[in-house]
Every structure is written in C-alpha cells, then in structure tokens.
Specification:
The complex is a heterodimer of chains A (350) and B (454). Chain A is elongated and about 105 Å long. In chain A, α5 crosses α11 and α8 runs antiparallel to α11. With 350 residues, chain A is an all-alpha fold. Chain B has 15 helices and nine strands. In chain B, the strands form two sheets. Chain B has a five-stranded antiparallel β-sheet. Chain B has a four-stranded antiparallel β-sheet with strand order 1-9-4-7, with no helix packed on it. Chain B starts with a helix and ends with a helix. The chains are: A mainly alpha (350), B alpha+beta (454). Chains A and B meet through α1, α6, α7, α8 and α11 of A and α7, α8, α12, α13 and α14 of B.
Chain lengths: 350, 454
C-alpha cells in the first residue's frame, strides 16, 4: 500500500468517526433537545402575543386567546420542522449538515464573555485558552520527559533510573484533578502564592490581561507538568533502552563513538517515531481530560464550558463543544497516525 | 508462548513488585469484608439522608490529631449508658448513667440527650451530673406526657434549653464568677474559681420514675459535642467519613474489576475472531474498532451519563464500551500469529469447527496476556468513574470515593482547609490503582520476557 492510499484510508476512517460521534450525540440528546425547542417556541409566541396590546384586546374570552396561541405555536413548530420527530432522517440530516458547516445555533443559557450567545462565538473564545494551557503543558512535559528519559536510559538500573520509573508509576496512579484539588489547597490557601480560581480577574481588553492570564495559568500548568512528565520519561526510557540494545548501536560503540553522542543523536533519532506519535496522542488525550482539570481549576476554556453546558443542559453548546473536541481529537490522532506511517513503513502494510 | 498457571505463579511470586500489589489488594479486600460485616447495610443506604447523621458533629477533624497537639481538642462523644433499675416502694426507677473521663482542653460545644421512653402513665425524667469535685448539679426534671396505655415517646433534651440554665442557677453561689450569659455546658464543665475546663470523671445520671408500671428507656444516648471525631472525621453534612471511605472500597473494586474483566473478555473474543477469520470480516470488524478507538471517551461518557442514566451498573456498561477496543487490536494481531502455527492448521485440516479452534486452541494461548490486561485496565476504570462522580455525574446513592470528593469540592473543602475530606479518598483511589498496576507490571514481565532485560 502506498503512502497516499494509506493517508486516504485513514482520512476516510476519521471522517467516519466524526460522523458517528456526531450522530451518537444527536441521538442521545435529540429527544431532550426537541422538547426544549418546542417549549421555547411556545414561550416565544406567548410573549409576543401578550406584549402586543391591540392584539390582546381583540380577544373576548381566554379560550379564544388560548386557541389562537396554540395555532400560532403549531405553525411555528411546523415552520421550524419540529413537527417531525427528532429521529426522522430529514431532521438528523439537517442538523448534521448544520453542524458540519459550523452552524451550531444559539446557546440557551450560556454566553461568551463579550455577551454573545452564538455557540460559535462562545467556542471561539474558549478554545484558544484550552490550547494555550494544554499545549504549553505538553511542550514542557515532553522536553522534561525526553531529557529525563534519556538520562535514565543511559544508566539502566541506576538510582536515577529507579526513581524515574517509580515516580512515573506512582504519579500516573493519582487522578490529575485530585492533585489539582490538593495543589489548590496547598498553594492557594495554605500558602497563598497562586490564585485559587484560574479565571483571570481583569477584562480581556485590559492591557494587563495577558499577564493576568499567565499568572492564573501557573497552578494548572504546574499540576499538569508534575503529573505528566514522569510517565513521559518512563516511556522515552523504555523506547531508548530498546534502541540501545540494537546491533547498530553496538557497532557504533565498537567504533568508539562517544556514549553521549550515541544516546542523544543516534538512539534518540531512532526512537523518534513512537515518541512523536505519543506526543500527538497525548495532546489529544489531554483535551478530553481537560473537562475535569478545567472544572477543578476554573480555567475558562473548552473543558469548563463543556462542564457548565452539561450542568445546565445547554444542548446546542454540548453538541458544538463535542463536535469541536472530537474534531481536534481526530486531527491529532490522524497526525499521529500519519507520522507513524511516515516514520515506520511497516504500519502502512499492516 | 505457552505458559502453565503454575509456572506463571512461580515467577509471579518471585516478583517483589507483584507481591506488593497482591498484598495491597488483600488489604483492600479485607477492608471490603470489614465494611460488609461491621457496618450495617442500613447505614450505607442512609448515606445521603441528613436525618440519620444528626448525632454526628459537623466538619470534625479526625480524633487522632489530638496526639500531635499539646492542646487537646474536645472529641465529639456519643456515649452509651449503663442501665440499672430499682424499686422504691411503689415507684419504679430506671437509671441510665453515662460516665466520661473528660481530659480535653476545651469545653464541649453542647450536649444532647436522646431517648425513647416506653411507659404507661405519667413518668418523671430527671437528669443530674456528678462532677469530678463531687458537686452534683441537677439539670432537668420534667414529666413526660400522660398516656393511658403503653406508649413510646421519643425526644431530645438540649443543653441550650432554659430549664437547665435555671436549675444550675441554684448553685451559683459556689462559682466565683457570674453565670449570666454563659452557656450551660460551660458552667457544668467549669472550675469553680475561674471559667476554665475542669478535667476529670463526670457522670451523668438519667432517672425515670413511674408509679404505674416499669418504664423502659431505649436508644438512650448522651452526646457531648466536640470538634474531632472518629478515625476519619466527618464532613459538612455530619457524615462519618470512615463509613463512606470503607464502603467505597468494595464499590471501587467492583467497578474496576467488572469493567476490566468485561472489556478484556469482549476485546479478546472480538479481536481473536477478527484475526482468525481474516479477509472481509477482519476488515469490517477492524474499521468498526477504529471508529470506537478514535472516539473521545470522556465527553461521550458524560453525555451518556446525563442522558441515559447514572446508576452504577450503567456506568460499568459505559466504561466497557470504551474499554475493549485496545485489547481487541492486540489480541487480533496475536491471533493472526497463532493462526499460522502448525497445530492450528492441523486442527483446521481435521475439520474442526471454527469456534472450537478459537476457544480451544487460540484463546488459551492468550490467557496470560488477558490477565495482564485485566490488571492494567483496572486503575483506568476506577479513576474514570471517580472523575465522572467528581463532576457530579456518578450514582448519588452510593458513597464512592469520587462521590465523596465531589461533595468535598461542592462544599469547597480545599478553601476551608478540610484536608481530612480531600486526602483519604484520593490516596485510596491511587493506592487501589497502584495495586493493580504493580500486579500488571509483574504479569507483563512474565508474559513478555523481552521487557525484563530492560
């Protein structure tokens, strides 16, 4: 199989996943969404009628008024296409098409900081913050991890190797959010160094906004790094140890090449494919985990938006956020796949 | 690639890290058994019922912190009585006495006497206390409502009741300081010359007098309010955290083990079937596998929990949905290797049925790998469930560790320094995870001998 064909196949699968996730989400929230939209349509009309004094005066009895309103509601529901059940193919198709074209509609309760209730605006406002936090964390974690992993791999069974492995296993057993709660407890209340809530307290237009954002980002960032770099170092160490046992490394050693150079330039280069892949995967994984982490730290990103949308059942936001999260997740999975296929031709053949 | 269980166990028992995992697991199982045996199922069901925790203190620290403190914080004491009864002429007397050796450096915050009296007629209830210095204070003397037949009358007497203040005022001449505006427990437990705690043995006597029959006092409890309680302390809703944490153990083990076994069994059969059949079947099954593999699990789990339901059993099911895919991938490639071995081909030539070959010849070969994967996937299931519960999406009827942490965060325990509410659940989650990680690590080393050279 050529690389192109491999790419096309992966892309098709990814698109299939995106559609399947979307369909699943719509199926799961569809019936709720239906009753909510119908209610809001009815409320809308009632409000319109009651605010129109001359129209209100033309009714003699309340029954007349009620039947008029009911008729209007029915017309509105038909106009919106809500008379069909939510699982009818047209409606599902229409909602999928709308979502694909990034038309998520309007949020029921949530608004962006600037006051817009358009789901697209809300997401566009939150997404960069999530990317800022988690990309920075992943970058720091991977640099630390690769360095520490290389050191551990060069001295297998030494003290530093054992400490790294032990720390990796122990740190990965603790839930990130629990460490987050603990960090807030220690560094925001016991020793008030950092703010407890990660939401910046100045408005986005303020010149000090970026500084405030970074200051508020410190605690979640430190937590993510502490929890993350151990398992990274462990993975890198394992890959490197595997590579260091290969014949070509032996040959280089026999040729008298400096041990440091073998490790950092030759071995690391050969261990790169899985490392790069895991880098891409861990980025996507952290986006999913962002929901709980951001909820704990009150970081105003996608994760917290998702959590808030769930708690008030703001369905358009839930669907929009699921779509964007899934899309990001898939893009990074795809990038990981492609990188792996590029580095390691065996994968393409399967 | 073939292992007999005995060989595996022999290797496993030599692995220090594996045996540590087993030891932790044994302790956790022991905790589960203790939970089942010592804590009645009822108290676990009433976990969310505020009425059943009335006698407990609010946000009390664990009692053992007194060992690390020079000033002993008063402990919250729930005392049980010593019962005696006697007959004085025509009068029947039931006496409940509560003795307490009070050695704390502070006054109790209050005291409550709770009882249920069974009587007929109109009995008289008297409460008095004998102080360490021998002074006897009469606190309460009240008659219970008249009843013509046998009735059970439940009530509580609080230290804040005016009658107690008035009765104590009789003895005010003995105190060297004015009693006005001082609450009754601070008088009863006070030294005579100054208003500080008098340490020593206090005995509370509850007497119930009745002429028309023998009265009985049931559920008789004297509660001395304090700021520390039990091994684990209590939370904002007065719940004894040790009960919640203990009950969380079997729940976490149940969730973790059921999810991992379910995922591994499904993944194993799915993967082996795809790998063994090959061709179009394999292609279709693996594309489906790819789709589930690439779905973002947590957002979907949240949507599932919100829309379908959050009972603990549904939760297990949801976790299995996203748990089996990775195992299916690996077992497929393993099955493809085994399929080409000669004995499998021989079985095929002999005309054995496909399912027989899969179950008799291929699956047994994958068992060691299956055990390792079960152990390795337990922690993920436990932390995911804990995470969902932490977000408030868990089953509220069960006190899982994640649920306790959710309550802690909704009452902002971190902000109020309530470490005893935050630390133990998280540590338990991690320790449980570690036990399985250790065991999985050791198993992995046996199944993949290559790893050992590292």
């Amino acid at each position: 199989m050529g690389f192109k064909k491999f790419l096309v196949k992966r892309a098709i699968t990814m698109f299939g996943v995106l559609m399947a996730t979307l369909l699943l989400t719509i199926v799961l929230v569809g019936s709720n969404m239906d009753s909510i939209s119908k209610q809001s349509a009815a409320q809308d009309i009632r409000q319109q009628v009651t605010s129109n004094k001359s129209l209100l005066a033309s009714f003699k009895t309340t029954e007349q008024l009620d039947s008029y309103i009911n008729n209007q509601v029915k017309m509105r529901i038909t106009a919106l296409g809500l008379d069909q059940p939510w699982y009818s193919p047209q409606r599902i198709g229409l909602s999928m098409y709308k979502i694909l074209t990034l038309d998520f509609g309007h949020a029921k309760f949530l608004t962006s900081d600037s006051g817009s209730s358009d789901v697209k605006d809300i997401i566009l406002e939150k997404l960069p913050r999530t990317i800022l936090l988690f990309t920075t964390a992943t970058a720091i974690v991977s640099v630390l991890g690769i360095f520490l992993g290389a050191v551990a791999a060069s001295k297998v069974n030494s003290k530093i190797d054992k400490i790294t492995s032990g720390f990796a296993i122990i740190s990965s057993s603790f839930p990130v959010w629990w460490i987050g709660v603990l960090m807030i407890f220690v560094f925001a209340f016991l020793y008030p160094i950092f703010p407890a809530r990660a939401t910046p307290d100045v408005s986005a237009s303020d010149p000090g906004y970026l500084g405030s954002l970074l200051y508020h980002m410190a605690l979640p960032l430190i937590t993510l790094v502490i929890i993350g770099f151990g398992s990274w170092a462990y993975l890198v160490r394992n890959f490197l140890v595997g590579v260091l046992q290969e014949d070509f490394i032996m040959a280089k050693r026999a040729a008298g090449i400096d041990e440091k150079r073998i490790l950092y330039s030759h071995a690391l280069k050969n261990a790169a494919p899985p490392i790069v892949t895991i880098l891409a995967l861990s980025l996507s994984g952290s986006l999913g985990g962002a929901i709980i982490t951001e909820a704990v730290f009150d970081w105003p990103g996608m994760g917290r938006l998702y959590f808030e949308a769930i708690s008030v059942l703001d369905l358009p936001v839930i669907i929009g956020a699921t779509y964007v999260l899934t899309a990001f997740f898939l893009v990074s999975v795809f990038v990981a796949d492609v990188l792996y296929g590029y580095f390691d031709p065996r994968v393409r053949r399967q | 690639m073939s292992f007999s269980p005995r060989v595996i166990w022999k290797e496993f028992s030599h692995s220090k890290i594996g045996m540590t995992g087993v030891a932790i697991l044994v302790v956790l199982f022991f905790m589960s058994v203790v939970a089942f045996v010592t804590i009645p199922l009822d108290s676990f069901k009433t976990w969310n019922d505020p009425a059943s925790w009335l006698l407990y203190p609010k946000s009390a620290q664990p009692a053992w912190i007194n060992y690390f403190q020079s000033e002993k914080i008063p402990e919250h004491l729930i005392l049980s009585p010593i019962v005696s009864s006697q007959q004085l002429g025509t009068v029947n007397v039931v006496t409940n006495s509560f003795a307490v050796n009070y050695q704390y450096d502070g006054f109790p915050s209050d005291f409550i006497y709770q009882y249920a009296a069974k009587y007929g007629g109109s009995p008289l209830l008297q409460i008095s206390v004998t102080r360490p210095d021998g002074i006897v204070l009469h606190l309460v003397s009240t008659s219970l409502p008249f009843a013509s037949g046998d009735v059970t009358y439940s009530s509580m007497i609080f230290s804040t009741q005016n009658i107690i203040q008035k009765n104590i005022a009789d003895k005010k001449a003995r105190y060297a300081f004015p009693l006005d505006g001082i609450s009754s427990e601070k008088i009863i437990f006070s030294k005579l010359d100054e208003n500080t705690i008098l340490k020593g043995e206090y005995v509370f006597h509850i007497n119930l007098y009745d002429v028309s029959g023998k009265p009985v006092l049931e559920q008789s409890r004297l509660i001395l309010g304090g700021q520390v309680y039990g091994i684990m302390g209590t939370d904002e809703l007065r719940r004894d955290l040790s009960i919640g944490l203990l009950w969380g153990t079997p729940l976490a083990l149940f969730i973790g083990i059921t999810v991992s076994i379910g995922s591994v069994v499904i993944g194993l059969i799915y993967g082996v079937y795809a790998g063994y059949k090959g061709k179009a079947t394999d292609e279709v099954l693996m594309r489906f596998n790819d789709i589930i593999y690439a779905m973002p699990a947590l957002p979907l789990l949240i949507i599932l929990a919100v829309t379908i339901g959050n009972s603990i059993f549904l939760m297990v099911g949801f976790l299995v949905i996203f748990g089996w895919v990775g195992i299916a991938k690996v077992s497929r490639s393993m099955a493809m290797q085994i399929k080409t071995l000669q004995y499998v081909e021989a079985a095929q030539l002999m005309g054995q049925k496909n399912h027989k070959i899969i179950f008799k010849h291929i699956l047994p070969q994958l068992l060691p790998y299956a055990f390792a994967s079960i152990a390795i996937s337990v922690p993920g299931a436990i932390t995911t469930e804990a995470g969902l519960s932490f977000l408030g999406l868990g089953d509220p009827t069960f006190p899982t560790w994640g649920q306790i942490l959710h309550d802690a965060s909704s009452y902002s325990a971190a902000a109020r320094g309530m470490w005893w509410w935050i630390l133990p659940p998280g540590i338990l989650i991690a320790v449980t995870g570690l036990a399985f990680v250790f065991m999985g690590h050791a198993m992995d080393g046996i199944v993949n001998p290559k790893l050992r050279q590292r």
